[in-house]
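Design review, sub-item: ligand-bound model
Attendees: FS, YL, KQ
YL presented the inputs for the heme C complex:
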Amino acid sequence: MRNALLPVIVLAAIATAGCSSLERSRALGDPAVPAQSIAMQVCSNCHGVDGNSVSPNFPKLAGQTEAYLTDQLKEFRNHRRADPAGFEYMWGLSRHLSDDQIAGLASYYAAQKAAIPADLDGTPSVRGKALFEGGAPDKGVPACNGCHGTNGQGNDKFPRIANQHADYLVKQLMVFQRTDERPEGAIMKTVAHELSVDDMTQVARFLEAMPVK
Ligand code: HEC
Ligand code: HEC
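KQ shared the predicted structure:
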């Protein structure tokens, strides 16, 4: 029994050590380190060098709006954005970032071009497209493109949602709908209120596969 548990404990220890060693990186906690070095040495481990992460556990930051990136990093730093993955991964990493470093990181990722994997199934979801462009008037759900832009590219405090990992989009829609863990997202709480899980999945699939613009 004890032996059977051992690998689990060892794996858990490695996972924890991995994250905290990133948090202890010399690139963090020193206001003299330029944002680009932090991006390369720390953030790239999860979000990819150019902000196009591979794993859907980590949101893409490439082509995200500068204002939204700045806001979210500050929301993690001041512990207002408290959804579990944000709390677990981003609180420690953002703790020592200065305002200047946050501004530099936001500008770096905003300037990167979003990308989608070549093998992504690009068959557009018909229901997803209808929700994005027209909402669901019968349920009082507004069209997404009204705030997030015709191509889902975002604008200022309205984030880019085009080409984001579908799993991450669904997860965040659930956070808005069911919790108060993202207090800056009060508007999205209203938007997501009447969305079914199937609608969330369809609109997320449509968004992920949108042509990159
Ligand atoms: C160990 C992995 C890891 C590292 C390293 C990491 N992040 Fe994150 N980051 C995450 C996860 C996981 C999330 C999703 C949190 C959630 O679901 O709320 C996230 C979310 C974010 C978001 C919010 C994105 C959105 O669309 O709302 C921003 C911005 C961000 N990270 C920036 C950074 C920056 C800048 C760095 C480097 C200082 C960094 N991250 C390093 C794991 C990481
Ligand atoms: C009235 C304006 C408005 C409408 C309409 C709207 N959104 Fe949003 N959305 C926002 C704002 C503002 C945020 C940023 C919230 C924050 O800062 O926490 C956001 C955030 C999001 C996020 C989180 C992005 C991330 O990177 O974490 C997702 C996903 C999202 N919206 C999806 C949708 C979908 C899908 C629709 C259509 C069904 C939609 N939104 C309609 C204003 C809107």
